[in-house]
Specification:
Largest interface: A-B, 44 and 57 residues
Structural class of chain A: mainly alpha
CATH architecture of the largest domain in chain B: Orthogonal Bundle
Distance between the termini of chain A: 50 Å
Order of helices and strands of chain B: HHHHHHHHHHHHH
Number of domains of chain B: 2
Radius of gyration of chain B: 24 Å
Oligomer: heterodimer
Structural class of chain B: mainly alpha
Largest sheet of chain A: none
CATH class of chain A: Mainly Alpha
Largest sheet of chain B: none
Strand content of chain B: under 5%
């Protein structure tokens, strides 16, 4: 008898995200700025994805006869101090930034969700210890922390992803914990507990689906921040190995020639700004849709 | 706060000691620049035993903590051969000056532009300011710095490219560093102000015939300030992080540039000292923000 009741409850478990999803899409289409940003993002991602096929030159081909050229027909954005084509390097650089940032955001999202769930759901000593760890990680200014870790690990794509994930997961964990605490008190969770559902089942079916929207907003805004961090670290020469085309590193190389070839500092910076703006618009728009009364600023 | 600081110490200490190659070898290589290849195993061992580097990490850590608390000695730089504390004291004023001025700019410009934008909601000037802030929060600080150098130093020749000491030198770094925070503060001020202006008591004040500036300064501002203060606290972190890059670009002799140089040179005691100094400043500002918050919002004090 008990089982029947529990089963019925389980079947009725809220499939919020689906109904929510279609409404969400509709709202996105009503907002011109988000549509624009979404289109720009798709174009950017497409360019990054197909960069090896569409970039006019090999991004690492050194051509010392044509170094530090200004924009021309042959090199639309000019060449750098080794005669490498800037457009090709910016396109391949988009690949570097977007793929590393996706990795960092996914890992942080996963780790943060897991830690936040554990802390919020189980409470007590588990919560106490996880929260302490989160506090410690959040008490470093992000860039400083990443710099220190990179200083210890040395440059490299994997190390950069590792360092930035270590820095970023705590934000997600804190937000997830807060979400879980409020969702846990709601009636459908209480009734699932009464119905005898297991912890893992409740977390998977009730808590995560209801919290994930808020976390995705954070992830979207954070994506831009991660790209900025990647660029900052490479700019300081503590991010990626020198042969990987990356916007921050290009800027750093270009600044030596600012007097004679300013476009070398202008174009990569424009690329960074552009992609970060896209994620800002998307993130803010999503936040407005999900939570119209939001006071703003908390996620910064 | 002290517990957090302790944890931060431990974390950086262990981070700094997982470096492949071993500390002793690093020390030697710093002493024998140019003769790196001649470093022998014997010399490495000698150094290791002199600085007790063979002990397990946690023992080294507690010895370091004990030294730090009892004598205030937090290590000696491998590169400069001077106490870390001395180096930090030398560099701290420059960082405080830069970050402090930027913070003041961020608060003054951000709050006033935010209020202006809120009062002109959906008018042209509001839209322009909002687009400017969108760029402000999205442009990387180091790029802004380079653009400023390009425009004001190289083209217009209005400000020096780099340097430290005079007011002229402060202008570009402070502008580059504060832009992001100005935009962030303005954004939050605008939203918070809009929300406050929609409240009943503001409508009442308007109906009473109070002039606009009085409504804003007496009634709205205080209530709209709470989220702004939170953001200012957060911005302190990004200011201190941003300062690292800005100091490096403008050759500003602060803790940030010391940190970057020490990381490149693998001067671990100094890296550790810099991180500690920065985190301490950060936590201190957070503490101040918390105090201010409870002062402004009695609900937190009594609730």
């Amino acid at each position: 008898m008990d089982n029947v009741f529990a089963n019925r409850l389980r079947k009725k478990s809220f499939s919020l995200p689906e109904a929510y999803g279609s409404q969400f899409a509709k709202r996105v289409f009503q907002r011109k700025d988000m549509l624009f940003a979404l289109a720009a993002l798709l174009i950017f991602a497409g360019l990054a994805l197909f960069a090896p096929f569409i970039s006019p030159y090999d991004p690492n081909a050194i051509d010392l006869k044509n170094k530090n050229l200004g924009p021309s027909e042959e090199h639309i954005l000019g060449t750098d101090y080794l005669g490498r084509d800037l457009l090709s390097r910016i396109l391949i650089g988009a690949r570097t930034s977007l793929s590393i940032a996706s990795g960092v955001v996914l890992v942080s999202l996963f780790l943060g969700t897991a830690a936040g769930c554990a802390a919020g759901y189980y409470g007590g000593l588990v919560d106490e210890s996880i929260s302490r760890v989160i506090d410690i990680f959040l008490s470093f200014p992000g860039v400083i922390f990443a710099l220190t870790i990179m200083g210890a690990l040395g440059t490299g794509i994997f190390n950069l992803m590792l360092a930035l994930s270590i820095v970023h997961w705590a934000k997600y964990a804190r937000m997830m914990r807060g979400q879980v605490l409020s969702i846990k008190k709601q009636e459908f969770v209480l009734s699932a507990i009464t119905g005898g559902a297991g912890d893992f089942y409740i977390i998977r079916k009730h808590i995560v689906p209801n919290a994930i929207a808020t976390l995705l907003v954070l992830a979207t805004i954070d994506f831009g921040h991660v790209i900025l961090s990647i660029a900052t670290l490479s700019f300081l020469g503590i991010g990626l190995p020198a042969d990987v085309p990356e916007w921050g590193a290009m800027l750093s190389a270009g600044k030596e020639f600012m007097r004679t070839a300013p476009y070398q500092t202008i174009f990569p910076g424009l690329a960074i700004t552009f992609i970060v703006i896209i994620f800002s618009i998307l993130g803010d728009g999503m936040r407005d849709i999900l939570d119209p009364n939001h006071e703003g600023g908390e996620i910064d | 706060m002290i517990l957090t600081l302790f944890a931060v110490c431990a974390l950086t200490f262990f981070l700094m000691n997982v470096i492949p190659g071993g500390t002793a070898e690093l020390v030697l290589k710093h002493t024998l620049v140019g003769l790196e290849d001649s470093v022998s195993k014997e010399q490495v061992n000698q150094i290791s035993s002199r600085y007790n580097l063979d002990d397990p990490l946690y023992i080294q850590f507690f010895r370091w903590i004990k030294e730090a608390i009892v004598t205030g000695d937090i290590g000696t730089s491998y590169v400069f051969k001077k106490p870390v504390l001395y180096l930090l004291a030398l560099r701290l004023p420059a960082t405080i000056q830069l970050a402090g001025v930027s913070m003041v700019i961020a608060i003054l410009a951000g709050v006033s532009m935010g209020i202006y934008s809120a009062l002109k909601e959906n008018r042209i000037s509001d839209h322009i300011l909002r687009i400017v802030t969108l760029f402000g929060v999205s442009m990387p600080g180091f790029w802004v710095a380079l653009l400023l150098i390009l425009i004001f130093s190289l083209k217009l020749k209005l400000a020096p490219v780099a340097g430290y000491g005079s007011l002229e030198n402060l202008f570009l770094p402070a502008a580059a560093l504060s832009l992001h925070s100005v935009a962030a503060v303005m954004r939050v001020t605008r939203i918070s102000m809009l929300e406050t202006l929609g409240q009943e008591y503001i409508r009442f004040a308007k109906a009473k015939g109070l002039p606009l500036w009085k409504i804003v300064s007496r009634h709205a501002l205080k209530n709209a300030m709470l989220p702004v203060i939170t953001v200012i606290g957060f911005q302190m972190g990004s200011l201190l992080g941003g300062a690292v890059v800005i100091e490096k670009i403008f050759a500003w002799p602060g803790i940030g540039s010391l940190l970057v140089d020490s990381i490149s040179a693998r001067d671990l005691p100094v890296v550790q000292g810099c991180v500690l100094a920065i985190v301490t400043m950060f936590l201190f500002v957070h503490f101040l923000v918390d105090m201010l918050y409870t002062h402004l919002d009695p609900r937190i004090r009594y609730g």
